[in-house]
Write a structure and sequence with these properties.
Blueprint (H helix, E strand, L loop, with lengths): L3 H40 L19 H8 L3 H23 L1 H12 L1 H12 L1
Helix pairs in contact: 1-2, 1-3, 1-4, 1-5, 3-4
Length: 123
């Protein structure tokens, strides 16, 4: 974690990849519902997280998430990123099952995404 901005870059990249894969399966509305619910749950313990919808009036889908994470130190950003992703994945697994969730995550994040994330966080 020598580069604090890497947490934000990696987080947004993971979300973009996941959104792209999931939207093809459950649609924009389904994805946005899951994301909003996850953000709501996480904001109970991290009230500084911005709660509006990721797709409203922005050029990029996760602009407000990026803004929230950039406004914190690297440890807080990392913890928030993990909390949001974990919450989202847990909700998804409850809805469609662990096996299908794992397949979707593997498809979205393939090994190259994990390798890139690891390199970004270490450099």
């Amino acid at each position: 974690m020598q580069r604090p901005e890497a947490v934000v870059v990696v987080t947004i990249d993971l979300w973009e990849r996941l959104a792209t894969d999931l939207i093809t399966i459950i649609g924009e509305g389904g994805f946005h519902s899951l994301y909003s619910r996850s953000m709501h749950l996480v904001s109970a313990t991290l009230p500084w997280m911005i709660l509006s919808h990721p797709w409203q009036q922005t050029d990029t889908r996760f602009a407000e998430l990026k803004k929230s994470l950039e406004g914190r130190d690297v440890e807080e950003s990392g913890e928030a990123s993990i909390a949001l992703l974990t919450t989202f994945v847990d909700i998804l697994a409850q809805l469609i099952g662990e096996h299908l969730t794992t397949s979707i995550l593997h498809s979205a994040w393939s090994d190259d995404a994990v390798d890139i994330a690891g390199k970004e966080l270490q450099s």
